[in-house]
Amino acid sequence: MDLLKIRRELHAIPEIGFKEWKTQAYLKECLRTLPEERLEIVEWRTGLAVKVHGTNSVKTIGWRTDIDGLPITEETELPFQSEHPGFMHACGHDIHMTVALGLLTQLIQEPIANDVVILFQPAEEGPGGALPFREWLKHDQPAFLPDQIFALHIAPELPAGTVATKPGLLFANTSELFIDLQGKGGHAAYPHLTEDMAVAAASLLMQLQTIVSRNVNPMDSAVLTVGKLSAGTVQNIIAEHARLEGTIRTLNLESMLKVKKRIEAMCRAVEEAYNCRVSIDYGSSYLEVNNDEDLAEMFLQFAESDEGVKAARSEAAMTGEDFGYFTEQLPGLMFWAGVASEYGLHHAKLNPNEAVLDILPEFIHRFFKTI
Questions:
Q1: What are the backbone angles phi and psi of residue 248, rounded to the nearest 5°?
Q2: One Pfam annotation, family name (predicted)?
């Protein structure tokens, strides 16, 4: 397979969660170039599960890659930039998919002892594909459910060829947050006849910022960010509706529940104080990613001895990843893979170093031969 060509063609067709029809079709085209007798393929919604049989299998190793893009207008000015206006592979899932296809090719050309299942999972960015995919595998395709599972995520800040991870907690619990406030609009000259939701939303926004500083144990960590506040229509009409959109991130489930409890209490107080209705939607919520201790140490020891990469031990991050639904029930490991991009994840100018396409598939294949 020409991995560089594949990456660039995938980069051009980003699609959001559970709408990755072109992406799925393209992946199937790539799979058709491989020996049919060596593969078992099943479809799940817009995703795929591909099984490669080993030479003397005693277990099934899983590799998961996400396949969806983001609703971001690309600004890279690359000659192969997104052909879908308003959408971009701004989290590196085009690289993830290409690495998975490269690994698949390696497994065909040089089989290992154990079976390998590669999961092309939709909707990581939302609404969340890992949990329903896992449950479907368990109940409908148990032969494709791995005994242990691995994945990577690109790291723009790390040099290309560096892999980094840690035992235990790697990524945080995450939850989306959408709060709608409904009051009574009216003419700006008669505020006493209205219930102003711009004022109510501004007050709520300021109150929310006290939750982490005053309700979460200082020895713990949490993030509550409101990234968008919208209210009203024009300058001389008092806002009848307002909406806050944000995200919550914690290092454990207990803190997540505490933060949500405080949000709900504050929203009830705003209802009373501003004579309005407030509704909360937590959107997509993801479990933390906990790396299996033994697998993480095994991986790091292997990477440290491998001449093709540079190994590093990372810190836990507030990043969210629905891969946590796999590690919830299966021994698993996720690692960062450096791609040396000036711009970070979810940035309109993210531009991963494509040199990793020559490094990562072969490195993962070498690692899989040892486990």
A1: -120, 135
A2: M20_dimer
Residue in 20, 66, 115, 322 annotated catalytic: 66
Q: How far apart are CA 126 and CA 129, in angstroms?
A: 7
Mean pLDDT of 14-38: 97
Q: How far apart are CA 145 and CA 142, in angstroms?
A: 5
Sign of the CA dihedral with 328 first, then 362, 318, and 119 last: negative
Active-site residue identified among 15, 94, 115, 125: 125
**How many CB atoms are closer than 10 A to CB 213?**
10
- Phi and psi at 206, nearest 5°, equal -65, -40
179: helix, strand or coil: strand
Q: Give the DSSP letter string of 287-321.
A: --EEE-HHHHHHHHHHHHH-TTSEEEEPPPB----
The pLDDT assigned to 280 comes to 98
Residue matched to tokens 């072969």: 362
CA contacts within 13 A on the Cβ side of 227 = 6
Residue 37 is among the residues annotated as catalytic for this protein? no
Token code pair at residue 58: 């005693």
The CA distance from 119 to 130, in Å, is: 10
List, in order, residues 6 or more apart from 183 with CB less than 8 Å away: 194, 195, 196, 197, 200, 239, 240, 241, 274, 275, 276, 277
What is the structure's pLDDT at 337? Answer: 98
Determine which helix (DSSP H) or strand (DSSP E) holds 207, and give its type and residue range: helix 197-208
Helix (H) or strand (E) holding 205: helix 197-208
Task: Convert the pLDDT of each residue in 47-67 to its tens digit.
Answer: 999 999 999 999 999 999 999
With 0.90 as the threshold, say if the pTM is over it. yes
Q: Return the DSSP state at 73.
A: -
Number of H-type helices and E-type strands within the chain: 10, 17
List, for residues 244-274, the tens digit of each pLDDT value: 999 999 999 899 999 999 999 999 999 999 9
125 a catalytic residue: yes
